[in-house]
Design goal:
globular; 10 helices; Rossmann fold; disordered C terminus; binds flavin-adenine dinucleotide; five-stranded parallel beta sheet
């Protein structure tokens, strides 16, 4: 037994080892490049148009603006599908707003929107594409929200609703749980939308199948300038409806007078919040809105939920998205769900008693004060300014 073996473990000491000779490091193998997977597509970006009584809806023009950018990045065509009756002028308008091709289904049975006939015509058309179009865009409107999932389910493809941004980029799938899918997917649609109570922006991808689909809310994307010199092709497409497509019959259409709640098109929105204290406060806001050429009132959800004003006026995550030239927030705290619906307005003016109200973070001009003092003074000054303006122009006319 050696001396060391007689020692208790605590007292044993390791003899110092001679320093190991430095070994040259073996060269690391080059990581294998990811295989590129191209999901078959013809690179076409298609917008499903919306029209009411032959009038193309603004959301469609906005989608053409976003679609143009995606088509440029993909190097593909921008097209539009338009369904309805007596729509030649409307088809031309889509070309003036950037569509290179319009697939037109003009038929009396398509005059008013119904889910099954519209789904039939669109899926029939898309099935004729080989390979399929790359991207399909719809508005997050009542119609778009009804139609988009039907089309996505038909083609077993992904759909992201209520996007606030769209882009094109690559996706690397590295999850070894799907060995067949490992690889680099170029040219994916990045469908970007707020998530987790608006605290995060999620980028949602569906790279396995084309068309990749998304909806965007009215007022979020920016249309191209109308240009009547733009040219394009109008291609009539067949309408072959089946008996089962007629399950729903429209008995009557009651259209609400739009003029009072034309939030999407207004230049000035005067929006009221819980700080107004009751529905009567909106009378004052109407007076302020009337000082402007194209001014309307809007509201936060809390006042809509309180029954002070109908839902059509609600602005925000679960209401409308607006982008007026001027947005005047009166007695609105500026919760994130409200801000997402108005923060892209040209000029934001906020009036609030509380100097720390979050609405001031997005406002270009803030007035800390009581709406019932500030708004009447604004009205007085605007009216005085108008009178001054008209007397000046009268004098000019006299001269
Ligand atoms: C899933 C979800 C979706 C939602 N969607 C929406 C949406 O689409 N739109 C939306 O607006 N909200 C939405 N909300 C609600 C949102 O979170 C807020 O509760 C709401 O926006 C608050 O409304 P408000 O600012 O009018 O009221 P409050 O938060 O109560 O703010 C009132 C403000 O008025 C000020 N004030 C009080 N008296 C006066 C006075 N005399 N003069 C000046 N200022 C005064 C106060 O300082 C305060 O800042 C949603 C919430 C959830 C959870």
């Amino acid at each position: 037994m050696s001396q060391n073996e007689n020692q208790s473990p605590e007292t044993q000491k390791e003899a110092p080892k001679p320093a190991a000779a430095a070994q040259p490091e073996a060269p690391k193998p080059e990581p294998e490049p990811m295989r590129e997977i191209i999901t078959p597509s013809n690179k076409e970006v298609i917008v499903i148009a919306e029209q009411v009584q032959g009038q193309i809806q603004t959301v469609t023009l906005e989608l053409l603006g976003a679609g143009r950018d995606l088509a440029n990045k993909l190097g593909g065509k921008l097209s539009c599908v338009l369904l309805g009756h007596n729509l030649k002028d409307a088809a031309q308008k889509l070309i003036h707003y950037g569509a290179e091709r319009v697939y037109l289904a003009d038929h009396p049975e398509l005059e008013n929107y119904r889910t099954l006939p519209f789904r039939r015509v669109i899926t029939d058309l898309l099935q004729t594409f080989d390979p399929p179009p790359h991207i399909l865009l719809l508005g997050s409107t009542t119609t778009g929200r009804d139609l988009a999932p039907r089309i996505a389910a038909f083609f077993k493809t992904g759909l992201t609703a209520d996007c606030t941004e769209l882009d094109i980029g690559p996706y690397e799938h590295t999850n070894k749980a799907d060995p067949d899918k490992l690889g680099l997917y170029p040219g994916c649609l990045y469908a970007i939308r707020p998530s987790f109570g608006e605290s995060l922006k999620a980028r949602i991808l569906g790279p396995w199948n084309n068309p990749q689909m998304a909806t965007t809310r009215p007022g979020v994307m920016i249309p191209l300038q109308m240009d009547t010199s733009r040219t394009g092709e109008i291609r009539e497409i067949p309408v072959n409806l089946k008996p089962e497509d007629y399950r729903l019959e429209i008995m009557e259409i009651v259209r609400e007078a739009q003029s009072t709640v034309n939030l999407d098109e207004a230049d000035v929105v005067v929006a009221g919040g819980f700080g107004l204290g009751g529905s009567e406060g909106f009378e004052l806001l109407k007076e302020l809105a009337a000082c402007f050429e194209n001014g309307v009132i809007g509201a936060s959800r809390k006042v809509v939920d309180s029954g002070w004003i109908p839902y059509q006026y609600q602005i925000g995550q679960t209401g409308k998205t607006v982008r007026p030239k001027v947005y005047i927030a009166c007695g609105i705290s500026g919760a994130i769900q409200h801000k997402v619906g108005m923060q892209k307005s040209g000029l934001i003016i906020a009036i609030n008693k509380d100097a720390d109200a979050p609405i001031f973070q997005v406002a270009h001009h803030g007035i800390v004060g009581d709406v019932f003092q500030v708004v009447p003074e604004l009205i007085r000054q605007l009216k005085a300014g108008k009178q001054l303006g008209s007397s000046v122009s009268q004098q000019k006319t006299l001269v």
